[in-house]
Amino acid sequence: MEAVFTTHNLWMMIATILVFIMHLGFASLETGLTQSKNTVNILFKNATILPIGLLTYAFWGFNIMYPGDDFAGSFFGFAGFGLSMPEGANTGGYNEAYTYWTDFLFQAMFAATAATIVSGAVAERIKLNSFLVFTIIYVGFCYPIVGMWKWGGGFLDALETPFYDFAGSTIVHSVGGWAALAGVMLLGARHGKYHNGKIRPIPGHSMPFATVGVFLLWFGWYGFNGGSVLSADPGLVSLVFVTTTLAAAAGAIGALITALIVVKSNDLTMVLNGILGGLVGITAGADQMGVTDAIIIGLVAGALVVLAVVFFDRMRLDDPVGAISVHLVCGVWGTLAVGLFGELASGAQIVSQLVGILSVGVFCFAVSLLIFYVLKATLGIRVTEEEEIEGLDIGEHKMRAYPDINNKAEEVYS
Amino acid sequence: MEAVFTTHNLWMMIATILVFIMHLGFASLETGLTQSKNTVNILFKNATILPIGLLTYAFWGFNIMYPGDDFAGSFFGFAGFGLSMPEGANTGGYNEAYTYWTDFLFQAMFAATAATIVSGAVAERIKLNSFLVFTIIYVGFCYPIVGMWKWGGGFLDALETPFYDFAGSTIVHSVGGWAALAGVMLLGARHGKYHNGKIRPIPGHSMPFATVGVFLLWFGWYGFNGGSVLSADPGLVSLVFVTTTLAAAAGAIGALITALIVVKSNDLTMVLNGILGGLVGITAGADQMGVTDAIIIGLVAGALVVLAVVFFDRMRLDDPVGAISVHLVCGVWGTLAVGLFGELASGAQIVSQLVGILSVGVFCFAVSLLIFYVLKATLGIRVTEEEEIEGLDIGEHKMRAYPDINNKAEEVYS
Amino acid sequence: MEAVFTTHNLWMMIATILVFIMHLGFASLETGLTQSKNTVNILFKNATILPIGLLTYAFWGFNIMYPGDDFAGSFFGFAGFGLSMPEGANTGGYNEAYTYWTDFLFQAMFAATAATIVSGAVAERIKLNSFLVFTIIYVGFCYPIVGMWKWGGGFLDALETPFYDFAGSTIVHSVGGWAALAGVMLLGARHGKYHNGKIRPIPGHSMPFATVGVFLLWFGWYGFNGGSVLSADPGLVSLVFVTTTLAAAAGAIGALITALIVVKSNDLTMVLNGILGGLVGITAGADQMGVTDAIIIGLVAGALVVLAVVFFDRMRLDDPVGAISVHLVCGVWGTLAVGLFGELASGAQIVSQLVGILSVGVFCFAVSLLIFYVLKATLGIRVTEEEEIEGLDIGEHKMRAYPDINNKAEEVYS
Fold first, then answer.
1. Which residues in chain C are closer than 8 Å to A19, comparing Cβ atoms?
2. Are the Cβ atoms of C9 and B234 closer than 8 angstroms?
3. What does pTM read for this prediction?
4. Which of A193, B332, B412, C145 is least enclosed, having the fewest CB within 10 Å?
5. Are C251 and C281 within 8 A, CB to CB?
6. Which residues are CB-neighbours of B232 under 8 A, at least 6 positions away?
7. Closest CA to B238 of B251, B250, B225, B249
8. What's the ipTM?
9. Total domain count for chain B?
10. C402 lies within 8 A of chain B by CB
């Protein structure tokens, strides 16, 4: 008993730090896909979002998301401030697979993800202070409230056919995706992106960092999905590893082929986002799918990413890194796929999946629209045009990301 | 029993994702050691090789490499398409240390390595489409066929004194190395590399990425070698960790000293490749060596890398990243070393090691020469001179890796 | 029994490779915070320090640091050259949680850290050869001697109220920090840094690499602190993970706020160093603190880093990466904090902590001052002014880090 408990807990701790490294993945990806004049700003956001997410989750978030039976309602519960360690919290008396501390930390690492997803979509024009205020509110309150609906025993878990979201295609990724959409709508496009009815691509400044980001995210996803088994159960975790891997691989191929057809190019950023799309897509049902299911889900997700990137661009919704396409579109797709493929496929499940997608979507989109709207009316959410053209690194941070390399380049480009 | 099985399987899953991260290591290293005008191309290849390798291994590769007793011959076997999960595949009934899914995925992560090694050697001038076709054939068929000869119970395993290759100095690294040699011979050197009887160095564009790549490869090698124990056996895995570490460290020192003597410089790329040489060298016998053996093997490997890089350059075999020196030369050295040092050292073992080295070498070199030859005669394998000078990023991908930094630099250099 | 032993040993091996990856973190951070003309030099140092540290630790260091009961005195002991594997060294007969090989390798990975910390502080002007000689002496002898005082059963462990240093705020980080201080004092500031009574900032050349470095260090710290439990004990390791995480997060916020007040800027490098400060600060008592303790320790550490960076600059002590502020100042703070917060807080403990801080400080500062002084008088420790202005990459290595990107920039800047 002690031995199995120790092994389960060990895996959950390792999964926790794999999710941690996803934040470096997000930072690298967002850095790579944006311009070098905004790099310090992007790194600063990523280096502060995670600490903010961890601390707010310790102060109150964990106790909102997992209020426990005594405090939970269908839509909201709260077990009080701070970490309230119960009896026997460091043994199997708390949980048969992990300690109280492991439980807290694994969940805490997930929390900041929602804001990180938004960060990419609103990059290169959002005011730093407003973004940090948004992060505190959204990560501190919206994320754990929605999470409680399913993982904390709320109404989505209590449906007759319970809504199913294994590791968070909806509960994590679309929560970020909806807020990204709201932010992009209220902010408007970057200066010069849509000019005289034409779409002007603004390429990211470092494809190596973008690639490093995607590989680190894929690496960390083994903790994100594999840890969501909530034990080191050999059969389940290894199945989840296989479905996660094959969906990512199929996402790359799906995006590669779709990009060859649609944009007629061997487009690296599409392949990279295809990998992420496949990963987001499999997340809702990674433990329910077979090999073929996982490959189909990934292929479709990879294709969807390319189509969605093109679609949002035509809609004049300017998302520098493709976060909405990856996390919202593929989040919805993956959640639906649980009703279409694998062990749970059924009409009733499709209905429950739609209920989950819509209720989370309406709440998150409305709340984030409201937050951004109030911020816009008060602090302002967009930097000045001069600051945007010069770059947020100088405007918000008085620093450059590459001071002795690209000064010259900036003279040429600005 | 359940507890030990869970721990063994956990280690094998973690080893699997450590091997995964080696692919990021390869991508970073190859990026760093080549020119910035070809970076998108290199990242694209690395981001697609792994998905191709994983999917072909799922479709048929695993069942070629491990056909099982019912299907195996001495040279070839095939257990059918797709993943054919046997009874009890997620328990100790399948294997006393890991599940069927873990078994598949650990092996699948190895498979793409062969093509990744080739990618570095043929970089900066090979046509993308031809390389991807090569990858599908070589990773999809040649790699698992050769792997079966030893690890799948084929003729090399059935020798009276069985050929020994613990984690793949020959079965993985030299398989990549032979194809790299064949590719380089058929492609010819990069434009301007050998001019008027002189060797013109074409330095890689980012030493930080090269260094990141080597450290990530070293990190991942703990899964590559440590996972090849096929369980979490404390004594064996920790011994393998120690021999792997000391061989890598000695490889650095061996290359450092040899470079000081031969090229008379504190040459960073030589030290980096020396580390990799030490790692490749210990791979065949990491579980059979003592501390002193491991250090000697690493020192020699580090020295060999430097000498081989100089030698191949004199032979006008243009290998931008030194892949042939690292993976083929040190792969051969490490395989031979099993007969010279450690527990298995004996005359009979040396003979068996030579049989393995030669049979794998003849097969891989001949087959890859044939594939590249047919590709050369049909699709063509080399980009045009104009495309090569302008860079493959524009020619094959219509993108730049650093669009707002090095435009200026390219004007200066091209 | 076997199962628990296997799990404990597995965690210790994984912790070992997490500490390994910290060396990539140090390399990336130091690269990012210095100028591109010295990047090859910095990478070269980092790629050779670790091999030197590992090999010297195998040759004699481990047997100095852990001489065993038969050989230990209060201040020095030595169990002979090489690795002397005792009976039953690969089973619970050696240690109930890990094998002899795991024990050696986990400790060996720590050893090189001391020199790596120094490397950052003396960067951009120290002679390569002198630095490597310093590394061999300091890592090979000083580090294990000091380590023995506490972890090898020496006099600091034998105090009536034993000095407490869980994972090495003093024994590792301040050991590096004191030598960094000595080196900076003897070397003097970089050319142009303090000019006409003014402080001229010399910004690092790549904020993305600096950020990657900090995230990798944070990641690796889970092995550094979590492995210092010396088993996979679920309650203890998960508590250590939580205190480590929250201290890092609080360090970021402490530095963020302090920088806004003191330097009036959203300063990315301060936030990054604040994270590291929080991590160093919690290291001495990571297993003794509660949630609130950890957050306070981190907040103070983050504030201290900013104040210390400003202070050392005013003192004309030129530390390009802030290593003295992070590792020495926060190392002292974290060690003291064990007497002020958490389970061990008491007056007697404060006294013991001061004894440990001072005895280690006096020894390390004096010895490293002596080593650098002798090197200065013989080999010389500083490159020529011309070499410094041109960059150590050309002077020491005849290479550039980014040959096809920043040539142009160097023309502009030099």
1. none
2. yes
3. 0.97
4. B412
5. yes
6. B7, B8, B10, B11, B12, B97, C6, C7, C9, C10
7. B225
8. 0.96
9. 1
10. yes
